[in-house]
Amino acid sequence: MLADSPVRKVLHVDMDAFFASVEQRDDPTLRGKPVAVGHGAARGVVAAASYEARTFGVKSALPSVTALRRCPDLVFVRPRFEVYRAVSQQIHAIFADYTDLIQPLSLDEAYLDVTANRRGIATAWLTAKEIRARILAETGLTASAGISYNKFLAKLASDHRKPNGQFAVTPDMGEAWVQTLPVSRFHGVGPVTAAKMQRLGIETGGDLRAKPLDFLQRHFGSSAEWYYAIARGQDHRPVNPDRVRKSSGSETTFRADLTENAAIEAGVLRMVDDVWGWCETRQAFGRTATVKVKYADFRQITRSRSRAEPIASYAELRDVSLELIRSVLPAEKAIRLVGVTVSNFEHAASTVDEPQLFEAASA
Question: What residues form the catalytic site here (predicted)?
């Protein structure tokens, strides 16, 4: 589909309801049922939800009591992060058969640059199709894929045919397609920013494109140039996993600002899982853990702790991250974003050092 174009061929591959799908795969009695990964206790929080559960409005970071109110038949399953990490390693081994340019975003999603076409497949569309077929055959799980000429469009496209589908945004349609979409779907535009845009009359990519750069700079500061570019379908960031990296971090903007301790801690734990999956895969272990908090008014704070020896296990990173977030709880005001970062590596790590931003309840 993008076979003979001189532009890049970028895939965004995203597993479908990853944690919940693993549980349904491993326990046939859960198949077809609404499943939530998490602790169903009174102060528990949903870590992930199956598509059957999502039809009832059950999603990540939702308090367990609310989830059960929405779906009385919801089945809670305790998370098994060691299993999810093992499956993620299987998936990334498949990716490596097609390209060396792999940029993981989390355990269940990654960008791939397949411009070089290592396996001689006719199109990027067919490459994505083959990768998804291999994931299904080797793991028993489905994945969705977006195919485009840059990372921003590929990520948008992967969500367009979920679950178990794929969608391509070609160079001749990219800019026009972006203009049809609500800005709330744009990667990096969280709920608060989307609401601010709507107050300024910006509801779609077309509305955003109509605003001059100086207008965007007045209202959005340093983010203005990014918004100006993506409204035109432009994104020049490379898929480059080989740059020396000084830290590994993951952060999430919640769909709704959080005030409950349990929900905030659950968000931190999801970030711990993402970061530790990267550290374990790369065998890169740092001595400093940092938790980042952004409040609803956009004020931001960080809390860090350094150790004499590298943080060498998931349990260590989990415990120190929980200690750090609990140092600012109960929250003085609602929290819109949390992040976890490991730095001060014992040895230089190899991958691109780029913030990971995504919605807590993404597909």
Answer: 109
Q: Which strand ranges, in their side-by-side order, compose the sheet holding 335-345?
A: 300-306, 286-295, 335-345, 247-258, 357-359
- Single-letter code of the amino acid located at 104: P
Classify domain 82-168 at the CATH class level: alpha beta
Instruction: Judge whether 109 counts as a catalytic residue.
Output: yes
Lowest mean pLDDT among 232-236, 261-265, 350-354: 350-354
- What is the C-alpha separation between 26 and 46, in angstroms, rounded? 19
Instruction: Say how many CA atoms lie within 13 Å of 1 toward its Cβ.
Output: 22
Query: In whole angstroms, what is the distance from residue 276 CA to residue 280 CA?
Result: 6
Whole-number pLDDT of residue 180 = 96
CA dihedral 177→179→180→182, nearest 10 degrees, is 120
**Predicted confidence band at 351 (pLDDT cuts at 50, 70, 90)?**
very low
Is the CATH code 3.40.1170.60 the one for domain 19-80?
Answer: yes
What would the pLDDT profile of 307-324 be if each residue is shown by its tens digit? 888 998 888 999 999 999
- The Cα–Cα gap between 11 and 41 comes to 39
| Structure token pair of residue 280 | 């374990």
Which one of the listed residues 109, 251, 265, 359 is annotated catalytic?
109
Binding region for Mg(2+): 14, 108
This prediction's pTM: 0.71
Mean local confidence (pLDDT), 273-279:
83
- 158 three-state secondary structure: helix
Whether residue 3 is predicted with pLDDT greater than 70 in this model: the reply is no
